[in-house]
Amino acid sequence: MRCLIITGGTVRDLRWLAGMLQKDDRVVCVDGGARYAAALGIVPDVIVGDMDSVTPEQLKYYAGRGAMIKEYSADKDDTDTALALAEALSGSPEEIVVLGALGSRWDHSLANVHLLRVALDRGVKARIIDEYGEISLVAPHTPVVLEGKPGDLFSLLPLTEEVTGVNVRGAGWPLENAVFKIGNPYGISNNLASDRVEISIATGIVLLFRLRGAE
């Protein structure tokens, strides 16, 4: 089962958002993300948050159509998206996809990227996706294969202080047993040399950015 988290961040193209939905997805909306659900005409399974970005009328509408409402105090330690991720993980999904997680609030955007680590620690694949690409993690001894066409862009950045044993095969700039350290971002703007790239690391955690329509 896949869980789709819709947050209140920036989504510019509702048609793109609609295209991300799959029939059997469990949909968790983060507070104002319920507005996107309303625009798409769907009823989320759960709405989570302090509800400062959704109206009481909207909540009543969704509750009347079977959505579970989990309202939290604004005076809390967790972000709304962190609460939504915990809710998603409670359903033991095979994968979590987070939409609307990026935007003008860079602090929230970076916090949402860090939440990928929570899913990783629970053994669940998680990705943040927007109209321009997706962000996921590469863990030790768990190779990742990227498929696409020659020239497709991707970037690698360390999430931990140091990442060792970085191997990138099939890329325009291949790497063999390389080391990434925070502050030396040389993994930016690599590309596929053919239709397949293999990435693996020995220690640490790497952020993997798949980029669409970028130059």
What report would you give on this structure?
The protein has helices at 14-20, 33-40, 56-63, 80-90, 106-121, and strands at residues 2-6, 26-30, 46-49, 68-71, 95-99, 125-130, 133-138, 144-147, 153-158, 162-169, 175-181, 190-191, 196-200, 206-211. By secondary structure, it is α/β, with parallel strands linked by helices. It folds into two domains: 2-131, 3-Layer(aba) Sandwich (Rossmann fold), CATH 3.40.50; 138-211, Jelly Rolls, CATH 2.60.120. A ten-stranded mixed β-sheet has the order 4-3-2-1-5-6-7-14-9-12, with helices on both faces. Strands 8-13-10-11 form a four-stranded antiparallel β-sheet, with no helix packed on it. Helix 4 (80-90) runs parallel beside helix 5 (106-121). The longest helix has 16 residues, at 106-121.
If you compute it from the alpha carbons, what radius of gyration comes out, rounded to the nearest whole angstrom?
18 Å
CATH superfamily of the largest domain: Thiamin pyrophosphokinase, catalytic domain
Query: What's the tally of helices?
Result: 5
Q: What class, by secondary structure content?
A: alpha/beta
Query: What is the element string, with H for helices and E for strands?
Result: EHEHEHEHEHEEEEEEEEE
| Strand runs, count | 14
Key structural traits:
single chain, 215 residues, alpha/beta, Rossmann fold, Jelly Rolls, 2 domains, ten-stranded mixed β-sheet, four-stranded antiparallel β-sheet, 5 helices, 14 strands, elongated
